[in-house]
Structure formats: structure tokens, C-alpha cells
Specification:
Blueprint (H helix, E strand, L loop, with lengths): L3 H24 L6 H29 L2 H21 L1 H4 L9 H29 L3 H23 L1
């Protein structure tokens, strides 16, 4: 249960970014203006990418890569599926209006945005040396480095 709740919160956050953008388009009366829709959608997409980036960076400092993918991956997939199929229904639209091709494009696009955001988040913490593996290696080096110094001092 401790693993499911944070992952579900991340999925909910990603879904709410998409849903919020759709609600803003409907409430502001911008449904007929493609430029406004694009701008609002772009901001929501950037927000989704940043949430994925932050979640991966937060998770990556605490967990190994395999656990990170196993816990965060399904949350990202759930958020993408909810954004494509449920969010249009909640604002009065039809997710199947554009046909199967449009659904596949949306699924691939949102998956790509979340994947790129997650990859960038993990790359940043790896470059800085804050990922789980780097921290473990630093602890091993500190432990064994201290032992070797004390042995050479005794001789």
C-alpha cells in the first residue's frame, strides 16, 4: 500500500493537468479557436512533462532503477490512458470523435511526453550524483576507504 499511494498521486496529478487544460478551453470559450487550444494544450503538456520529471527525480534518489520503473511506469501509463479516454468525457466531449488514428496519436504523444520528462529527471539526478546507485557507491567508498586508511595507519 505504501508503494501504490504515491504512484496513484502522480497519476492523478498528470491526469489533472490534462483535465484542467480541457476545462480551461471549454470554460473560456476557446473551443473554436485552434491557436488558443494549442497554447493551453502546450502549457498543460509542459506541465505534465515537468510533473514526470520531478516525480522521477524524487523517486530516483530513493529507489533503484528497476523499482523506479516498476512503480512509476504503471502510474504514467494510467495517467496517459485517463487523459486520453476519461478527460474528454468529463468536459462533455467524445474521446472517439477523431477516430482510432487520433486516439493512437494522443496515446503516443502523452506517453512520449511522460517518458521524456522521466528520462530527463533521471538524467539530471544521475549527472549530479544523487541517484540511488551513486549514493550507494558513495557509502561503500566511505566505509571501505575509512577501513583502508585505518589499516595503513596501524602499520
Amino acid at each position: 500500500m505504501k508503494r501504490i499511494v504515491p504512484a496513484a498521486l502522480i497519476a492523478l496529478g498528470l491526469f489533472l493537468f490534462n483535465l484542467g487544460a480541457r476545462i480551461i478551453v471549454e470554460v473560456s470559450g476557446q473551443a473554436d479557436d485552434p491557436d488558443a487550444q494549442f497554447t493551453i494544450g502546450l502549457y498543460a503538456t509542459i506541465g505534465m512533462g515537468l510533473v514526470a520529471l520531478a516525480a522521477t527525480a524524487w523517486w530516483g534518489t530513493r529507489k533503484a532503477v528497476d523499482r523506479l520503473i516498476a512503480e512509476l511506469g504503471p502510474a504514467l501509463v494510467a495517467a496517459v490512458v485517463l487523459s486520453v479516454f476519461v478527460a474528454p468525457l468529463l468536459v462533455g466531449g467524445n474521446p472517439f470523435e477523431g477516430g482510432a488514428g487520433w486516439i493512437i496519436i494522443q496515446l503516443l504523444f502523452f506517453t512520449g511526453v511522460c517518458a521524456v520528462g522521466g528520462l530527463l529527471g533521471y538524467l539530471v539526478i544521475t549527472i549530479v550524483g544523487l541517484d540511488h546507485r551513486s549514493q550507494r557507491l558513495r557509502r561503500v567508498e566511505t566505509y571501505y576507504g575509512g577501513r583502508n586508511r585505518s589499516r595503513t595507519a596501524k602499520r
